[in-house]
Amino acid sequence: MKQLKNLGLVLAAGLFVGGQAHAADRIMCAMTAHSSDNLVPPKVLFEFRDNRGSAMAYDSTIHHVYGKPIAAVLEETGASRYTISWTVKNLPLQGNTTTSAQYLVRLNTKTMKATLTAYLNGYFNESRGTGKCQPLS
Predict the structure, then answer these.
(1) What element of type H or E holds 103?
(2) Using 50, 70 and 90 to split pLDDT, how confident is the model at 4?
């Protein structure tokens, strides 16, 4: 099942990116979770748009809820450093219960490393992960 999710994410990544995008405009990060609650996705794909004025995010959670990439808030925090954040609404929990989750990624495009923090609404704990990233062609 995990292999299917990873394969699906890679295939979808190729579909949602326009043909005019440059390799540096798409970055895939392979994440390592440092918590066991499954909020840190194994891979996250970012597409920078509008000359790095906006971004789209896509991962297995976004795929499960929306089936397509969603807009993310992009902030340039320094040379080669970005903060990318997004919210997944109507995330299914147990039974008919849903909640939302906020994600925040700090990405360094010079070292190609990322840190991810995820918060599930209604819970006090946070999930953390780190990742190595690479540009996609």
Answers:
(1) strand 98-108
(2) very low
